[in-house]
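Fig. S4 source data, part A: sequence.
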Amino acid sequence: MRTRIAPINTPEGAEEPRGFSIREHRLPAPKAAAGLHLVATPIGNLGDITVRALETLASVDVIFCEDTRITRRLIERYAISAQLRPYHEHNAETVRPQILERLGQGTSVALVSDAGTPLISDPGFKLVREVCAAGFSVFALPGPSSALAALSVAALPTDRFFFEGFLPAKETARKTRLAELARINATLVLFESGNRVRDSLRDLAELIGRREAAICRELTKLHEEIKRAPLSDLARDADSLETRGEFVLVIGPPAADSLAMTKDALDELLRSQLAHYSVKDAVANAVEVSGRPRREIYARALELAKEARDGHGED
């Protein structure tokens, strides 16, 4: 339902007062301080935005966002009149100096991502670094985060967690990275896209081992779905998984006695490494991530290399 806005009587030629509307109430927004404002926006449900975020978006001189179409839906929902400009990984090198120039003129600038908190698996780190180096102010407006939302509903330990973001898209790189993650003694939080989530679940079950996990899909949205089960069960049922939407995968920490990689997982890692590297390099990589002795890994690598040469190894 569209918000009905009471008319504002503005003298001719005067600037319209800055503000935003919530449920037919029009609220003023005093002009924002000069500097860069990092504004967290909803990850799905537009009602999750904070009042402070709305006030800032209504009061800055310009809003830089990944996709102006997505951000426009948000500001129109709250009847905010704002100047939108794109800032994303494809234009960042060109636009970043322009933002710094604006800040040098005393402008107030907001940076938002398409959803959630800016800089969390989104563009912005280099901009914040250069803004700080130039001596301009940076303000953080905390709010929605899909990683924290998933952690809160996964029913897994939250006292220590490791945020990985997106896994590599290619299978070999993904498996190598998962072998490294397997040794981290903490709950893991991963982002994944719908077209890769099934493959990632199978690789997780194979390389991470027997752990409790949760699949969080479309958090805060109409079709939100959360599945909690052992990784092996989630991987087994991966083919029936609805893949439309955005995913956060939460994997519980390893048992105290399981940080060393299992034999099957080590074999899988070595096979993937041997397919692309020499025995020496494959062993070095496996030693770094497996937690097993170098002598043992070297002996097993020679066996697997011989099997592959003789035509008896797995593809």
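Fig. S4 source data, part B ends here. The first strand starts at residue 19 and ends at 22.
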